[in-house]
Specification:
The structure holds 2 protein chains of 2 kinds. By secondary structure, chain A is mostly beta strands. Chain A has no helices and 11 strands. In chain A, strands 2, 4, 5, 6, 9, 10 and 11 form a 7-stranded mixed beta sheet that branches. A 4-stranded antiparallel beta sheet of chain A has the order 1-3-8-7, with no helix packed on it. Chain A is globular and about 40 Å long. In chain B, strands 2, 5, 6, 9, 10 and 11 form a 6-stranded mixed beta sheet that branches. The termini of chain B are far apart. The chains are: A mainly beta, B mainly beta. Chains A and B meet through strand 5 and strand 10 of A and strand 6, strand 9 and strand 10 of B.
């Protein structure tokens, strides 16, 4: 099991462009969450997907949107990129119904640079 | 509002010394707290969670609701413990969120 895989690993975009990041969850997992980690900060929750629906959302504008597919993989889309969107984007997967609650497994992240 | 505070950005100790990484939280409901660790060039991974009351790699953490703290402790630090440590608060029920602190970089010197 490769665990949580994210693609691409690095991405460079210019202001105003749109970007799509991809995540494949760990085998057996059905829930995907996305986090933004700016330099020197802890991860900040963007949103969570379960059963192909957005279930919870953090304090991020509508420019940030997502999708979950029937195979549980997920995409994060960011429109009208701003310089401040430059960050490491982390995907985390989990399985609802696990004992002692869910355990999150993180991917290695996509480093997005907006110029 | 939900908040996690890790007051120390950097913590440096010598091998064999005790180590304590502080974490305080703000949450009006029943908290569920975690410690995550990121070793150099590795992905973020769960270290321990308060509900399982486990000791992982010699680390323990006790939830103190009165002091709203969840400090991470280890009696004898090892060089391989050097890493970035994040405290996190889970809230929001089944459709939950994790709020992370800003992290503490622990360096264990030989």
């Amino acid at each position: 099991d490769a665990g949580v895989t994210q693609s691409p690993t690095h991405l460079i975009k210019t202001r105003g462009q749109q970007v799509t990041l991809r995540c494949s969850p760990k085998s057996g997992h059905d829930t995907v969450s996305w986090y933004q980690q700016a330099l020197g900060q802890g991860p900040q929750f963007i949103f969570q997907y379960y059963e192909e629906e957005e279930r919870q959302r953090g304090n991020f504008p509508d420019r940030f949107s997502g999708h979950q597919f029937p195979n549980y993989s997920s995409e994060l889309n960011v429109n009208a990129l701003l310089l401040g969107d430059s960050a490491l984007y982390l995907c985390a997967s989990s399985f609802r119904g696990g004992q002692l609650g869910e355990k999150l497994f993180f991917g290695s992240g996509t480093q997005l640079s907006v110029l | 509002a939900q908040r996690v505070t890790q007051p120390e950005k950097l913590l440096s100790v010598f091998k064999g010394a005790p180590v304590e990484l502080k974490c305080n939280y703000s949450y009006s409901g029943s908290p569920e707290l975690f410690w995550y660790v990121q070793y150099s060039r590795q992905r973020l991974q769960l270290l321990l969670r308060h509900i399982s009351r486990e000791s992982i790699k010699g680390f323990t953490a006790d939830l103190n609701k009165g002091e709203t703290s969840f400090h991470l402790k280890k009696p004898f630090a090892q060089e391989e413990d050097s890493a970035m440590y994040y405290c996190a608060l889970k809230w929001g029920g089944s459709n939950y969120k994790l709020t992370f602190g800003k992290g503490t970089l622990l360096t264990v010197n030989p």
